[in-house]
């Protein structure tokens, strides 16, 4: 409400009351002004009323919300359902233009501003989370797998003769298929076992570079966040190797933003060597609905190349979701979530270790994995391989989600490539195991309840053998690895 309208209000209601209300409104406006001026995540979170005021201000800047607008084109922001319109805060035009997802739309100034501000706020959060030297990023309305594909397709224009992508093995379908979908041949490098951990085989990567020739390699595709006992790749060494041989380096940082260790690895890799882009999921790191990712890098020109590779306009929903979330949490609120996650990781490790010991198992020693933990299942394996997979079913039917039970010897063929020991990131890991993760948003109550139900299932399996008696699992739950993208 402008000053002229405020003056007019004083004709109807006492001027002292109007001035008080006007001052309260200016408090909201000052927060918005600071965001527009700085382009950074506010230190403290906004109230919902401030967020909604801001989004409504953006919406009235789009042509579909102009009073008296007359649209005669094929895309005029028309929405048949008022419920759908409200769900999107009447920001209907999406983001970008046909040639560039980051471009400004002439008839959607509000949506364009939303896009630019979201990218700026997310860039600030990436810096706060540990990658201080990141130069540019953008939110893309695709999950991590397809976002990786977009990066590979962009590199194709820089390296048209390249056919191969060197990929230290991680057993997750979408990151493997991201390379296949882009039209490249993944060169799978098996991990090496160090203690309980599965780590990058740097010598094998170097041999593949020598064997294939650097000019024929599109990039090295490495991973940070992953399921134990695999741990983040040796990013510094890989980045140094890529810089030495002039090979691009793309990092799958799916849920690594929440981990200071993963972000530090990326920062250090870029400092000592070469990292061209790193990709992370919105839902896993920022607790928003599935459907978006952040593509970031240290060369602003390359990040712009990737954004221009995206064909057509794009949905604004992921950008809107993450902007609302970060404005509501503020930088301090998000950092509190990260601190709590790290504390609960230690709590989960202690609880899992105690439970494992009570059942004659052990917590696998994986100190280089900052998010995921693994507990051996040797005792169940001694009973039967069926008992191992049955544990996964029992947990699933008892509403324990996210726990992964990994049996020995599973094979999986993906796009013509057969992975032996699939889900364990290794052809011959020595024991079956169960995974649990301390991801952002987890609570101590989640851990306590999970341990209680896991303990009951293990006791039932031990007592009743293969059938698990009264604790029967029912239909076999799908044991495919959850999406890590």
From TrEMBL:
Cofactor field = pyridoxal 5'-phosphate
Keyword line: Cytoplasm, Protein biosynthesis, Pyridoxal phosphate, RNA-binding, Selenium, Transferase, tRNA-binding
Positions with a binding annotation for pyridoxal 5'-phosphate? 75
Drop me one GO molecular function for this one.
Answer: O-phosphoseryl-tRNA(Sec) selenium transferase activity
- Tell me the pathway: Aminoacyl-tRNA biosynthesis; selenocysteinyl-tRNA(Sec) biosynthesis; selenocysteinyl-tRNA(Sec) from L-seryl-tRNA(Sec) (archaeal/eukaryal route): step 2/2
Q: A Gene Ontology biological process annotation?
A: selenocysteine incorporation
Catalytic reaction equation(s): O-phospho-L-seryl-tRNA(Sec) + selenophosphate + H2O = L-selenocysteinyl-tRNA(Sec) + 2 phosphate
Source species taxonomy: Eukaryota, Metazoa, Chordata, Craniata, Vertebrata
Q: What is its EC number?
A: 2.9.1.2
Q: Which family does it belong to?
A: Belongs to the SepSecS family.
Its function, per the record, reads: Converts O-phosphoseryl-tRNA(Sec) to selenocysteinyl-tRNA(Sec) required for selenoprotein biosynthesis.
Q: Which residues bind tRNA?
A: 271, 398, 463
Task: Kindly state the subunit structure of this protein.
Answer: Homotetramer formed by a catalytic dimer and a non-catalytic dimer serving as a binding platform that orients tRNASec for catalysis. Each tetramer binds the CCA ends of two tRNAs which point to the active sites of the catalytic dimer.
Identify the GO cellular component terms for this protein: cytoplasm
Q: Name one Pfam family in it.
A: SepSecS
Residues carrying N6-(pyridoxal phosphate)lysine = 284
Q: Where are the residues marked May act as a substrate filter by repelling compounds with a negatively charged alpha-carboxylate as a site? A: 74
SUPFAM superfamilies annotated for this entry? Answer: PLP-dependent transferases
Q: Which InterPro entries match?
A: PyrdxlP-dep_Trfase, PyrdxlP-dep_Trfase_major, Sec-tRNA_Se_transferase, SepSecS/SepCysS
According to UniProt, the name of this protein is O-phosphoseryl-tRNA(Sec) selenium transferase
Origin species, per record, is Poecilia formosa (Amazon molly)
Q: Where in the cell is it found?
A: Cytoplasm
